[in-house]
Amino acid sequence: GIGRDSVRHYLDGISFLHLTLGFPRPNLTHDLIKKVVSQLRPSSAKPRLPVLPSMLRKIKNGLCNEDSLSRFEKRAIWAIVSLGFHGFLRLGEVLSAQAKSFNPEFTLCWEDVKISRDSIGIFLKSSKTDRVGRGTWIQIPATSSDICPFRAMHQFSLMAVKNTQRPVFVLDNGNYITKPVVNKALKKYLQPVIAQVYGTVSCHSLRAGAATTAELLGWSENEIMG
Q1: Alpha-carbon distance 156 to 105, whole Å?
Q2: Do the strands 136-141 and 119-124 form a parallel or antiparallel pair, or are they unpaired?
Q3: Which of 124, 64, 98, 122 has the alpha carbon at shortest distance from 181?
Q4: Is the predicted pLDDT of residue 181 greater than 80, yes or no?
């Protein structure tokens, strides 16, 4: 049957969409709603929230005001976030799994990146949808918005040492940027949003947010899945 977590996730989703779209929080405290939820099976699991464009701007602002990161590290993390969202990326297919070592068969290196006048080309060497293991190029176009992935990657590349066979995303100390590093940033800069909604965010929230945004813009299921 339907558990308490499913109903809570649905109600939280309603609240979340209202808040991110700038509307006041809806009143979901009606006695009937509370009675129904209280009689369902409990769950401690938190739903994963999608990162929407308004939340991307909060991340960008948070990075700009961050004192513990260098300018280079801020640009690196922002490039990952913006590319992850606009490219519908699984960050595990781009970032190194380890901070001090990397697998060249999986990790995005500079030889796998092409920056043209109006788009970013990324070669995914291993993907869940790549059945034959040949890899695939994807194009992430520039946008006219303040969260443009082309601008984010271009600005980062101007500061980076582009060793063709080394990972693209690194920290000042030479460690490679991993998913936990990005997860930590997402949670930190979106804490004011998360605090208002029963949920959490992770790297996958970028891909989920891109799909949600595309659906709201009228994309078909085939366009989103492609």
Answers
A1: 23
A2: antiparallel
A3: 98
A4: yes
Decide if pLDDT at 154 tops 90: yes
Q: Which residues pair with 109 in a beta bridge?
A: 167
Counting Cα atoms < 13 Å in the Cβ hemisphere of 204 gives 4
**Banded pLDDT at 59 (limits 50, 70, 90):** very high
Nearest-10 Cα torsion for 34, 38, 43, 49: -10
Structure tokens, 161? 């040492």
Question: What HEC string does the chain produce?
Answer: CCCHHHHHHHHHHHHHHHHHCCCCCCCCCCHHHHHHHHCCCCCCCCCECCCCHHHHHHHHHHHHCCCCCCHHHHHHHHHHHHHHHHCCCCHHHCCCCCCCCCCCCCCCEHHHEEECCCEEEEEECCCCCCCCCCCEEEEEECCCCCCCHHHHHHHHHHHCCCCCCCECCECCCCCECCHHHHHHHHHHHCHHHHCCCCCECCCHHHHHHHHHHHHHCCCCHHHHHC
- Rounded Cα distance, 15 and 67, in Å: 32
The answer for residues whose C-beta is within 8 angstroms of residue 83's C-beta and 6 or more apart is 89, 94, 120, 122, 140, 149, 152, 153
What value does the mean pLDDT take over residues 53-62? 95
